[in-house]
Amino acid sequence: METQNTSKITVETTIDAPIEKVWNLWSMPEHITKWNNASDDWHSPWAENDLRTGGKFVSRMEARDGSVGFDFSGIYDDVKKHKFIAYTMEDGRKVEIRFSEDGNTTRVTEIFDPEDTNSWEVQQSGWQAILDNFKKYTETKSGTGLQKIHFSVEINAPKEKVWDTMLNDETYRKWTSAFTEGSYFEGSWDRGSKILFLDPDKNGMVAKIAENKPHEFISIEHIGFIAGGVEDTESEGAKAFAGAHENYMLSETDGKTEVSVEMDTSEEYKEMFEGMWPKALAKLKELAES
Predict the structure, then answer these.
(1) pLDDT over threshold 70, residue 145
(2) Residue 192: is its pLDDT beyond 70?
(3) CA-wise closest residue to 189 among 210, 160, 206
(4) Where would I find the beta strands (DSSP E) of 64-167?
């Protein structure tokens, strides 16, 4: 008979950021909601955190398509600023988090009691994925300079048709003309693939497809810019948006599909996108319903 491994599980990472930044982004609810997910098809829509000994915390974790979700909560047993956090989860399991500073880098180590539903390996990989997401978030200006904006539209068509209309080369060019006339893409929508989003002068964005669940969810991760056909992933401007995401969620009810868009942007571009996205989605609706 196979015996479940009941020893404590450890995950860790080294982050290229000072301890003050790591601590703040780990503990502030407005940042927790941006990194607290193991994969791009999950998110944390809200969080509350009273980071003190005896304080309580809760993070809502949900699949982006709304199919499943749960509250992750507990009580802090010990908090030493910039050094150590210990808490007890709602089910009684214990967690310790250690922060160690080495110059301008910070080591984060989590040690936790496993639960008895999922395998040791599944639990370790899930917690490690969240920690890796925190590392990526903290090491980019996404941690301090970007915000999420949301848009949606209801389309009187099944999600398969909406999906194809959204991503097919011919119709993609039409609905994205609301951003720039002559917009197009080069590359593949397959998960992990590199893709370029361009205007007629070959200016635009270098990205990869972080996730693709056909007819349900697609996530685009910003890598850099492209100007005149030359890619830039190393300049300060490019790095400021590195790791930013643009997510599309499709859900169908009674033959109608709701398309929800969530994207990271800076304050500088927020107003521009708030003017463009409704027009783009209205065009997508028109094309999919025709």
Answers:
(1) no
(2) yes
(3) 210
(4) 69-80, 84-89, 94-102, 105-112, 147-155
Q: What is the pTM of this model?
A: 0.63
Over its C-alpha atoms, the chain yields an Rg (Å, rounded) of: 21
Residue-wise over 231-266: b if at least 16 C-beta within 10 A, else e?
Answer: eeeeeeebebbbbbbbbbbbbbeeeebebbbbbbbe
What mean pLDDT comes out for the span 103-129?
94
**CA 217 – CA 261 distance, rounded (Å):** 10
Q: Please, what is the end-to-end C-alpha distance for the chain in angstroms? A: 59
Instruction: List Cβ neighbours of 65 (8 Å cut-off, separation of 6 or more).
Output: 41, 216, 217, 249, 251
- Kindly report the number of other CB atoms within 10 A of residue 219's CB atom: 22
State mean pLDDT over 254-274.
91
* Structural contact between residues 278 and 151, judged by C-beta atoms closer than 8 angstroms: yes
pLDDT of 246 over the 50 cut: yes
SS3 104: coil
**What span, in angstroms and rounded, lies between the C-alpha atoms of 28 and 193?**
33
Q: Which amino acid makes up residue 95?
A: V
Share of the chain above pLDDT 70, in %: 96
Specify the 3-state DSSP secondary structure of 62. Answer: strand
Lowest-pLDDT choice from 35-44, 145-154, 211-220, 250-259 = 145-154
Q: Minimal CA–CA distance to 165: which of 259, 263, 253?
A: 259
d(CA 14, CA 135): 8
Tokens representing 290 are 């025709």
